Structure prediction request, 241 residues.
Amino acid sequence: MSEKIKSREPQALFKSLIALLLIAGCFWASQWQFQRGIDRHQRNANIESALAKPTIELEDIASNYGSIEWRTVTASGVLDETNQILLKNRYFEGVYGYEVLTRLKLTDGRNLWLDRGWVKAGKDAKTPPIITAIPDGQLSITARLRLDRSLPQGAFFALPATGAGMISKLNAQSGLQSEGFYLDLIDGSDPQLKPAVPAQLPELSDGPHLAYALQWIFFAGLIGYGRILIRRGQILTSKEL
Prediction:
């Protein structure tokens, strides 16, 4: 019987090693979730801080746009209705629609995209959404500055003014150049500019990351406790033999 017990020892060590690896994996996952929670909390704090700061003139800012992301800015320029794209798969109160981005040329010559807010999709794929017409001439706007990296992920599609067909990725196909930031329109000098549904802010909650981190620690404890119970049972069985 002693030979049989000895033959089980390598198996027990192997199982213990597997348990230790699983526990290490759980602790790694816990740390990863904890760090994600910290990063998200910091992001939310940065957004809230920027939103609370006073409005600034965009023409006064020529670089380092990252330092003013989410700040409210004022700007002047001309909107180009012939260069307009729709960001699909956008929802508002459960209704499918598009985010309307229009080309804006600032008075200082810079070109960028202006997010004019959400519009409801047409009744079918062949029906373009109803988009508010753009006023002519020089316009003044109030908007939030957003970096290119913060643009909501999705495919870009454009509907021409005639509504005939869809052209994918208008900005890439047209060869237009743009600044590395864009603006979420809040209001403008012309009442037509004010979006019925402005671009939405991200959800400013810390999310479930802390709970997930604690959950992974709990899993690690279960694995360790389970392995101890199994090993204890094996030892008791070997003593009986």
